[in-house]
UniProtKB/TrEMBL annotation:
Organism in which the protein naturally occurs: Mortierella isabellina (Filamentous fungus)
Pfam family, one: Oxidored_FMN
Keyword Oxidoreductase applies: yes
CDD domains reported in the protein's UniProt record: OYE_like_FMN
Keywords, ordered alphabetically: Oxidoreductase
Domain NADH:flavin oxidoreductase/NADH oxidase N-terminal: 6-342
Molecular function terms from GO: FMN binding; NADPH dehydrogenase activity; oxidoreductase activity, acting on the CH-CH group of donors, NAD or NADP as acceptor
InterPro entries linked: Aldolase_TIM, OxRdtase_FMN_N, Oye-like
Cofactor (UniProt): FMN
Name of the protein in question: NADH:flavin oxidoreductase/NADH oxidase N-terminal domain-containing protein
Oxidoreductase is among the record's keywords: yes
Highest classification ranks of the organism: Eukaryota, Fungi, Fungi incertae sedis, Mucoromycota, Mucoromycotina
Gene Ontology CC: cytosol
Amino acid sequence: MSSKGLFQPIRIGNHDLKHRVVLAPLTRLRADPDTHVPNDKHVQYYGQRAGNGGGLLITEATNISPMAGRYPGSPGIWSKEQIEGWKKVTKAVHDRGSIIFLQLWHVGRATHAAWLPNNAQPVSASAISISGDDTFGLANEVPRALEIDEIQDLINDYVQAAKNGIEAGFDGVEIHGANGYIIDQFINSNTNQRTDRYGGSIENRARLALEITDAVVKAVGIDKTAIRLSPFSDFQDMYDETPNDTWGYLVQQLKANYPGLAYLHMVEPRFTFEDSAGSSEHNLDHFRNIWKSPFIIAGGFGHDVTGAVEHAEKTGDLIAFGRFFIANPDLPSRLQQKLPLNAYNRATFYGGGAEGYTDYPLYEEA
Ligand code: PHB
């Protein structure tokens, strides 16, 4: 067991990292709006954050298929052009000695017919919509419950996307099972009212996450597969009656069947999209204690860097930073040397060009 601490080495898959400061998956919406191909700006953005090497970057959530969501500017991993675009990104990261995992995304009900092929109705576990309007100001739509024989097609889309990711040079893939997207819509009790083998009991609601994990592991290897989960999250109306039992079962199954996954990534219950630090009576200790292997925790640490250092020393976790990694391309070395951080500008988080994307200065430049 390696020693604990943010600047202690750790092995992820077949890679030895020099530190445990991780680039969190962050939607930035700068890919081509029609083709969803990443471009030279992505190459620069991820390359900058590869720093002096030895780190782990996780990409922004990336559509596994044309049906997976297609927010304007989100990247994809289903077409040849997308794979070619990503190859330049992975090369830039590897040239600087870091590694990068691709986050595999299907948003389920969190999209609109207008964005989907042939104006298809969004799909989910059950025909239950998110309340109100989405972050684009559009009214959320009622999705269609996936037919049981469509579930295998969905799993196949994850497999193909994972293979495409490996072809594009990624060191692994992270299955996005968090934050109210399709896998999470199957897990949580309030969004899954199915009466087949994918609904009802905890075992049934966890089945899709486990089947996708199994299929991706078989396709690309266990050391190249990871998963992200968010127990206790209420983002996009998620609610589960028994979060400790639900995700406890899921993590136990992952531990029993896939203990060699590259990592397990969990979102802190206190996480919010607001600028102020959030709080929660819950934490992830129960799941970390079951998992015992590389564990990434994300959410709220940028507002509390001292707390992050202490947390990593206490638990051995890797810590994913979002907002402050956006604003500080050299975040790992700034944290290690206790240098001041650039402030972030929320107005340039989503969409647009280089401003707020690739123009944040290194410490020496500031
Ligand atoms: C977003 O696009 O706002 C987004 C994407 C993925 C997440 C959370 C939020 O996990």
